[in-house]
Amino acid sequence: MDQYQQNFSDDAMEVIADMEKSLLLMETSPGDPALIQQVFRAMHTLKGNSSMFGFKVITEFTHHLESIYEHVRSGQKKITKEIIDITLDSLDHLTYLAKNEGELDVQHQKTHDTLTARVVKILKDILAEVNTESNTLAPASQTAACENNALKNYHITLAPDKEIFYNGTNPVYLLEELQTLGNCTVIPNIEGIPPLEDIEPTYCYTSWDIFLATNVGIDTIREVFVFVEGRCKLEINLIPHTQEDLPQQNESARYHEEIIKDILPQVSKTAIAEPAKKNVISSIRVPSERLDSLMSLVSELMTLQAKLGTITDQNPQSELLAVTENLEKISTRLRDNAFSMCLVPIKNMLTPFNRLVRDLANELNKEIDFVTEGTDTELDKNIMEGLSDPIMHLLRNSIDHGIEYPDERVKAGKKRHGKILFKAFCAGVNVYIEIQDDGKGIDAQRIREKAIQKGIIGKDEVLSEKEIFNLIFLPGFSTAEQVSEISGRGVGMDVVKRRIEDIRGQIKITSQLNIGTTITIKLPITVSIIDGLLVKINDVSFVIPLAAVDRCFEAPAVQQLNRFNNLIVLDGEQIPFISLSEEFDGKENLSGSQEIVLVYYDEKRVALIVDSIVGKFQAVLKPLGRYFQNMDNISGATILGDGKIALVLDTNKVAEQYLHQKRLAICQ
Amino acid sequence: MSKTVLLVDDSDMVIRVISFILKGAGYTILTGCDGDDALSHFDGKNIDLVITDLNMPNKDGLQLINEIRKMHYYRFLPVVLFVSDSSMNIQDYIKTSGATMLLDKDSIKEKLVSTVKKMIG
Question: pTM here?
C-alpha cells in the first residue's frame, strides 16, 4: 500500500486546489449551495483518504473543518468571512501536511495548534448557537458480558423481516459468520412459509434458532448482526448449563440449512435483466508527460514528412506523389489534433491569481475587485506554465503600485473599490492577455527622468510615450521609489519580459496618469510547430514565421533603394529596410535579384531583404544549444527535408536590434 | 469464476488502492467515478457486490443504492457504503439508506477483504 502514498499527496493537492477555487468563488456568492456542497465533499474526500493511509494528523484536522461545513451545509450556520479566512489558512497548512506526509516540525506544530484551536473555537460557537447535542449518538449501553475463557452456550433466535433481501442482505452469510465463532448448530424454522400459491419469492419467510458454544462475549455476537439490527427480531440468550439434546438436532439442522442455501442464491438471480442506459465516457485524463511525448512524436513526424516531400520532388513518380500528398494531409490534421489536446482553458490558472489579489489587498488595506473575462480562451499548457510567474508579478505590481488606497481614490474622484481586469482573448494565431487596473497610472515624465538619471537614455533623446514605457522593461530599472516588500523582490520587469519572451510572447504597456495602466501580453497559441516562410540568404536557409509576414515583393533594382538612410517607399509609405545578408554576413550580395519580405514590427512594418524565397515550410522548432542562448534574433532551429538545418528568425528582435544600432549611431 | 465487485468512488486514488487490494484477493473489479458512471455497469453484467462512497458528484451513494434497489435484476445486490462519521446511528442509517453494510474508511486496511469475503465468499 506504501506505493500509493505519493498518489495520496498528489491527490490531496488536487482536492485542496479545487477547494481553494470554490472558496474564492464562495466569497462572491456566499449563499450558493452548490459551492458549499463542493467544499464539503472535497473536505470529506480529504478526510477519508488521509484516514485510509493512516495520516491521523490530517484526518483529525480535516474532521473539525468538515464539521463546520456540515453545519453550513445543513443551513444551521451562514458562511462568514471568518470561516472562509480560516479555511484558506487551513488549506495552506494542509498542503504542507500532505507534502510532508503528516509530519510536523516545531514551527508547523505551532501553526497546527493555533489553527486547530481557531477551528475548534468556531465549531464550539456554532454548536452553542444551534444548541445541538452532537454527542448523543453514543452506542446504546449494552449488557457487558463478563469475558472469561470458559465455553458458554448461547441461544440465538434470528427472525429477519420479510423484506430483508431488499437491502441486499443474505442471512446465510450471517450464519456462516456465526459458525466461525465457535461450535454452532443452526436450526431453520420454516413454519412461516406459506402455501406454494401464496409465496412471494422475494420475501424471507424463514427464521432460525441457533445454538452457539463459544468463549466470546455477547457483544461480539451482537456485532455480527450489527447491520441487520432493526430489520429482524433478534434474541441472544445465555444458556446457563449445557443442553443435552443438542447433538441430536445436528443432523436435521444441517439438512435444512443446505436447502436454504440452495434456494437463496436463486431467489436473487432468477429475475429478468432490465435494459440499462449506456453511458459514454466524454473525457479521459492523460498524464501530461504522455501528451508531451505525443507532441514530440508528431514533431518528428512532421520532419520526416518534409523529408519525404523532398525525396518525392526528386523522384516524381505519380504513385509516390499521391502517397506523399495524402500523408501530408493526414499528418497536418494529426498535428492540429495533437495541438488542440495540449490546449487548456485559461481559467485553470486563475485560482492563485484570485487568491493573490485577495490576500494582498487585505494585507495592504486596499479594496480591489478582481474581474476576469474570456477565461475560456485556450492556450498551450506549456505556455501557460511559463506564464504563471510573470502574471503573478504583474498583478503584484498593479496591486501595490497601481491601485491607490481607498481614501486617495475617493479624493481623486474614483470609486472606493479598485478594479483589476484580467482579460484574455484570441485574435488570429495569437492569444492576448490584458491586465488592466484603474489605479494611478504611470507618469511618463518620471520614467524619463529616471532613465536619464540612470544613464539608460541620453538627456536630449526624443522618445515617444510608448518607447518611454518600454524603458520599464530594461534591466536595472525599477520605478518604485522605495523597494517595497511586495513587488520589489529583486525581480524587475526585465525578468518578466524575459520570461514572456522565453515562451515567444511579447509584452506591451500603456498607461494614462490617474486613469490606469494596461499591460498586454501577446502569446502564440502553440510553441513547438510554426508555419514559416523558407528563404535563402547567401545560400543559407532561414525560416521567417509566417505569422509575422505581411507581403512579399520582388525587390526593385538595387540602385533604386535609398542606401543613405535605408528607406524604401512602398504603397506611398516609407519603410525602413534591413538587408539580412549584410546584417548576418557583413557583406552584401550584389549578384542576381533580391526579394523583399515585409514583416510586422509592432504596429509598423519593416522590410527584410533576402536573396530568394523558397516557399512555405512547416517548421518544427528545436531549441538551440546553450552556446547560442545569447543570439536573440534567432528563436530556434528546424530540420529541413534534405536534413540540413535552417535557423528560425525572430523578426521582432532583428528589427529591434537594427533600429537600436541605428539610433546609437545617430546619437554618436 | 471470480466474483465481481463494482467499486464507486470519485477519488481516483481510492479506486486504485482498493482495486489493488481486492484484485490481490482474487476479485474482478469494475469501477465507476460517481453514481451515474456506476449505473452504466448495470446492463446485465454479473455483479456480486457494490462498494460505494457516500459523497460523490452527479449521483451520491444513497441515490445510487436507491436506483440499484429499483432495478429488478439487481435489487438484492449487497452494497457496502463508505461512511466516515462513526458517530452515526448505524441501525437507523442502514434502514434508511438501503445499504447492506457500512464501512469506515479508517478500517479499510484491516477489514475490507474480510468484509467482502464475508459478504460474497
Answer: 0.51
